[in-house]
Write a structure and sequence with these properties.
By secondary structure, the protein is an alpha/beta fold. It has 18 helices and 15 strands. The strands form four sheets. It has a six-stranded parallel beta sheet. Strands 11-15-14-13-12 form a five-stranded mixed beta sheet, covered by helices on one side. The protein has a two-stranded parallel ribbon with strand order 1-10. Helix 8 runs antiparallel to helix 16 and helix 17 packs across helix 18. The longest helix has 18 residues. The N terminus is likely disordered. It comes from Micromonospora carbonacea.
Length: about 575
């Protein structure tokens, strides 16, 4: 059934109140610094006849004016950001069409955008060693040109909607390291933990600006990154996705990543509020309990989120976490106390709050419609990855019309989403030729070089050639990358009999170590090095090409490693290099 309302309700009175709230703030605290809004491109004027004309440089005014014209169905659609099956907006395989029909009653991603008046769509995909793979039920990405064609088709569909003056949000999880959706043909940064080891926010900002430019070139304007979780616990679900265990150092890194991404016209979504690094449990499968005191939350978990907000982050992602010191038993995603009281009240965030995936286990304790309503009422503005789009949409619309979802809350959420869209609208997309160009590779390599850490052994001498590179199972590609980089650095590599350099990575334990290796290298979290017997222990925290090049230069004696372990490793120093 077509969902177009014959007599749409307007949001005038509530909008006037909301506009005052958005422009003056609601906490009584001074406004935090915001990024300068970009000039929006020429578009059909959304202002109702007789209303004051907002300036093109005022995204909030444009959003408020547009919201005043929208029907109920459009307001509901603007707060939804599902995933879809298929690698093209209008042409999909039989299997992808079946997946979309089960998810949303349509065949293609473009039809999903049109039918539900969507505010955005997330591109999902698989990557190796990915702790988030449990809620990646399909893949939308193959190569950059395919992604650009897909995003162009999605925006064409969205441009025909009543809210089409504001660009469709197209997001993805491009964190770098183990969670990287687009891996081919792009510049791959080292992991956030590697950036934490380098400890130079300027290097981080430059690398993430390069990453943002490449995302923008492919038509992506929202990155679900950076991860602001402080790595208090040994967690395989967060692990090297975090910048480290020190709140102050992590805060500087988060701020640098936000400035870099948004300097390229891509919105940063700081995650996972209020701090997934305080638990080792996996919120994809269960509801982790955050049992630390409020004092620990204030001093440890919250500072990187505050830093991201101060850097101008346009979005924050809420997490499925049970924070017992604030709202015991209620996942943070559904907690008014945490999202409205703490995030907006205490931390002063005024941008878009986005749920973590609503197809994750803690959110599925309710039906998709009820979960969407609860999340919106708690303070989220954008509902990410509902497990059934039709049910989420219909549930929100029914709640709006029976009064259980206050109209002012929906208007507030839609206005925030549209404000973010108009803020992003004026930045032109870079050319596709910028992908993996020399300047971007140099930014990634500089960050990777700063990360290499010596936890045992000499800081000045390289290894004796020839070298034999080995690894734990399934890392042939990484061994090849290091072999090529060593050869380029002038080090002979032989299949066997040379000085053994052994690589370990994500998910590896003491059983993956090699007792006879002269050098053991940790390419993810460095905890495993505590059990290694090698006389030389190194960490790159990442297996990217840039990280292997940096490692090769250290092994060749051409570069002095300056990194410091950003997490404590029992029995080992943060570095033996005295810096």
């Amino acid at each position: 059934m077509d969902r177009v309302s014959n007599s749409p309700r307007r949001a005038g009175v509530a909008l006037a109140v909301l506009t005052a709230v958005l422009l003056t703030g609601c906490t009584g605290e001074p406004d935090r610094p915001r990024p300068a809004p970009s000039a929006s491109p020429a578009a059909a004027d959304p202002t109702p006849s007789g209303a004051p004309t907002p300036t093109a440089a005022d995204p909030a005014a444009r959003a408020a004016a547009l919201v005043a014209t929208l029907a109920d169905e459009d307001l509901v659609g603007q707060v939804l950001m599902p995933y879809a099956y298929g690698d093209n907006a209008t042409k999909v395989s039989t299997g992808s069409a079946a997946g979309n029909r089960a998810l949303a009653g349509v065949d293609t991603p473009a039809e999903m955008v049109a039918k539900y008046r969507l505010g955005g769509l997330i591109l999902v995909g698989f990557s190796a060693d990915d702790p988030t793979s449990g809620n990646q039920e399909t893949t939308n990405v193959d190569n950059p040109r395919q992604v650009r064609e897909l995003t162009t088709g999605l925006r064409d569909a969205a441009g025909k909607l009543p809210a089409g003056a504001a660009p469709l949000l197209i997001g993805t999880d491009q964190e770098y390291g183990v969670v990287t959706r687009i891996t081919d043909g792009v510049t791959l940064l080292p992991s956030p933990l590697a950036a934490g080891a380098a400890g130079d926010p300027a290097l981080t900002e430059a690398a993430w600006r390069a990453a943002g430019q490449e995302l923008a070139a492919m038509g992506i304007n929202l990155d679900f990154a950076p991860v602001a979780d402080v790595l208090v616990t040994r967690s395989t679900v967060i692990g090297s996705r975090s910048f480290g265990a020190d709140p102050k150092r992590a805060s500087a890194q988060v701020a640098g990543a936000v400035r870099g991404l948004q300097g390229a016209g891509v919105a940063a979504s700081v995650k996972h509020f209020p701090g997934h690094g305080l638990s080792a449990a996996d919120s994809h499968e269960e509801l982790p309990v955050i049992g630390q005191s409020r004092k620990v939350l204030d001093s440890t978990a919250f500072p990187p989120f505050s830093a991201g907000i101060d850097a101008g982050a346009l979005a924050v992602m809420s997490a499925h976490l049970d924070v017992t010191a604030v709202d015991p038993g209620t996942p943070a995603t559904f907690s008014h106390k945490l999202l409205t009281g703490v995030l907006r009240g205490q931390l002063g965030f005024k941008g878009v709050v986005i749920t973590d995936g609503m197809n994750m286990a803690p959110a599925k304790r309710w039906s998709p419609g009820e979960a969407a309503v609860r999340a919106l009422k708690a303070g989220n503005d954008l509902i990410l990855m509902p497990p059934n789009v039709t049910q989420a949409y219909d549930g929100l619309l029914a709640a709006l019309r029976d009064g259980s979802l206050p109209r002012a809350r929906l208007v507030e959420a839609a206005t925030r989403v549209l404000t973010m869209k108009f803020t992003l609208a004026g930045t032109p997309a870079p050319a596709m030729s910028t992908l993996n160009d020399a300047e971007h590779r140099q930014a990634a390599e500089a960050l990777a070089a700063g990360a290499v850490t010596v936890l045992r052994g000499s800081c000045t001498k390289g290894v004796a050639a020839p070298v034999t590179v080995t690894s734990s199972g399934g890392r042939e590609k990484t061994r090849d990358l290091l072999t090529q980089a060593l050869t380029a650095a002038g080090v002979q590599v032989v299949p066997s009999g040379g000085t053994r350099v052994h690589l370990v990575g994500y998910g590896d334990g003491s059983g993956d170590l090699a007792a006879d290796a002269a050098v053991t290298v940790a390419m993810d979290t460095p905890y495993v090095l505590a059990k290694a017997k090698s006389p030389t222990l190194l960490a790159t925290y990442s297996s990217s090409a840039a990280s292997m090049t940096a490692l090769a230069n250290v092994l060749a004696g051409r570069a002095r490693p300056t990194g410091r372990a950003p997490v404590p490793v029992p029995g080992l120093p943060a570095t033996t290099c005295g810096n």
